[in-house]
Every structure is written in structure tokens, then in C-alpha cells.
Amino acid sequence: QTRKIGFIGLGNMGAPMAANLAKAGCAVTGFDTAVTAAEGVTMAETAAAAAKGADVVITMLPNGQILRAVAAEVLPAMAEGTLLLDCSTVEVESARAVADLASARGILCVDAPVSGGIGGAAAGTLTFMAGGSEAGFRTAEPLFEIMGQKAVHCGGPGAGQAAKICNNMILGATMIATCEAFALADKLGLDRQKMFDVVSTSSGYSWSMNAYCPAPGIGPQSPADNGYQPGFAAELMLKDLGLSQQAAEAVDADTPMGARAFELYRRFVEEEDGRGKDFSAMLPRFATRRRE
Ligand code: NAD
User: Fold this and answer.
1) TM spans, by residue (predicted)?
2) Residues 281 and 228 sit within 8 Å (Cβ to Cβ)
3) Ligand 1 centroid vs 81 CA: distance in angstroms?
4) 62 CB less than 6 Å from ligand 1?
5) pLDDT tens track for 49-95
6) Ligand 1: does its nearest atom lie under 6 Å from the Cβ of 32?
């Protein structure tokens, strides 16, 4: 039968995800505090109204505080045995708090942040990293298949968020390492293309170098070839690095590279000219700086 989906948060990511669900035949009712129309979505007046009668309520919201507020509003409107599927990137703590609220009402809950960005959301090729019960994951799986190309069940509540922030902590650090190495290579008189040819096939390779090369005109097409228009904006990387540092503090984990990456992106976004640029624009930043 037709799946009834409530979709809360129809921004850059949520709108194309909801459109793909609608295209696949789901009946999607949506709510957003700012967006008033979205492809394939019947808009409701409130979050609770969008959630009422839904088999699954999906949230794609800016942060954990907003997620908690929305969850408190939609859970009472949802029927027992239905699923709350949060795809936002939020603190592990918020994910677990929302899972507790849901479970107290007999509602399944899965945290499933995504990787793949706006392009992946539009193409339906996102990767989902999911945390929650086996039953919750199984219920979400057909939707993951519509909106994405891969879903990993990482563990219990919060495990999806944990995987996401660990992944992005590595990504932030390797992007910085790749950019500072290019800047060093420049000053050593090493051609950028040669640098790419060596590193992309040597032990310094990473997704940052091989798939998203921060140097324009080199490697595969990336935001560097488009004036560093995001892509994945530096401020979103800053958000995710902040979440990983918050989590590290909460569990007393030593993450010096993550902490340094957070500080560099914080300066880039808040004190330099990084806001609105792709996170790989760290390369021109390093290339134009002197040693501190
Ligand atoms: P966005 O700001 O474009 O969308 C968020 C939407 O939520 C907005 O339309 C906003 O109006 C709406 N909203 C805010 N408060 C609300 C409320 N109380 N009720 C209903 N709607 C509300 O952000 P986005 O880029 O779509 O990102 C959404 C989430 O996905 C974030 O957690 C982000 O970290 C994560 N994410 C984004 C990307 C990316 O490349 N953009 C990639 C991976 C993960």
C-alpha cells in the first residue's frame, strides 16, 4: 500500500529527499517553518499535522535543539508502532534523548545522518549511517533505498550520529593536511599535477585528494573547479567538527587532530573569508599565507 510520510524540514537536503519519496509513490505531507512549497509534497500547517496518520515521520533539521523541539511536538501525534526517522546531523546526546522519548510512546526511532550532500540528495544516492533497533532499521530500509544507495546499521540509538561525526572529523583533518601539503609543494617548486599523480597513488591518498581534489584543474571535477562554490560549505564542516569535539569532551576522548581541524575551520569561517566557500577552499587559504 502507499506509504504515508510526514517530512519535517524541507531545506537544501530535505526538499530533494522528499521529492524522491514522492516520485517513488509515497504520499508525502510536509512542514517547514520557512519553506512553503516543495516538489511532490502536500504542505501542512504544523509539524504535528504533517505527522498525523503517517507511517514514518522523517526530520531533516539544522540542529539538535530544533530536533528535540520538533520531536516533542510530533511524537504525540504519531501512532504506536510507527517510525521517527531523523536524518539531520546532531549531537549523539540529542539523538539518544529523542530515541528515549519515542520509545516511551512505543514509537520506533532511528538516527540516520547522511553523507553525499545536496547532489546525493537530488540523485537519490545518499549514504545513510543508522542507529536504532533492528526493527527500526528494517522499517526504514525501503526508504533508504529510495533516497540513497547505501545504508549501514551502525548500532543502537546514536550510533549513526557517532559514525557521521567520526567520519567527518577524519574528513576535516585530511582536507587540511591535503591543502597544507599542496601549499608546501607550491613553495618547494613542485608542480601540482605531479603532486596529485604521486599522492593519489601513494600512501598519502585520501578521499580529499583522490575524489575531491582541492586544487583547481587537477584530478576529478570538484568545487575547486568551480571557484570553491560549495559543495560542502566550510561552515557545515565547522558544525560537524564542533559536534565531534563536543562528543569527545563528553566521553573524555583525546582527539588532538580533530581539535586542531575545528580551530582552523573556526578561524576560516569566523575570522577569515571562509564563510560561503567550499571546505576545500582551505587550499587558497594556505597557499596565500606565511608560516605562523
Ligand atoms: P537547511 O538549512 O537548508 O534546511 C533545514 C530546514 O529546516 C530549513 O528549511 C528550515 O526552515 C527548517 N526548519 C528549521 N526549524 C524548523 C522547525 N522548527 N520546524 C520545521 N522546519 C524547520 O539545511 P540542510 O542543508 O538541508 O541540512 C539539514 C541537515 O542535514 C543538517 O543537520 C545538516 O548538517 C545535514 N547535512 C547537510 C548536508 C549538506 O550538504 N547540506 C550534508 C549532509 C548532512
Assistant:
1) none
2) yes
3) 26
4) yes
5) 999 999 999 999 999 999 999 999 999 999 999 999 999 999 999 99
6) yes
Residue where the block lists cell 546514536: 158
Counting ligand 1 atoms within 8 A of each CB, the residue from 36, 41, 60 with the most, and so the one to mutate, is 60
Other CB atoms within a 10 A radius of the CB of residue 149 amount to: 14
Would you tell me how many other CB atoms lie within 10 Å of the CB of residue 249? 11
Within 8 A by CB and 6+ apart from 114, the residues are 13, 87, 120, 121, 126, 127, 128, 129, 148
For residue 56, give every residue at least 6 positions away whose Cβ sits within 8 Å of its Cβ, in sequence order, or none. 3, 4, 5, 6, 82, 83, 84, 85, 139, 140, 143
Q: pTM for this one?
A: 0.94
What is the C-alpha to C-alpha distance for residues 277 and 226, in angstroms, rounded to an integer? Answer: 11
For residues 74 and 51, the answer to whether their CB atoms sit within 8 Å is yes
Split at pLDDT 50, 70, 90, the class of 195 is very high
Q: Give the model's pLDDT for residue 231.
A: 87
How far is the C-alpha of 32 from the C-alpha of 230, rounded, in Å?
23
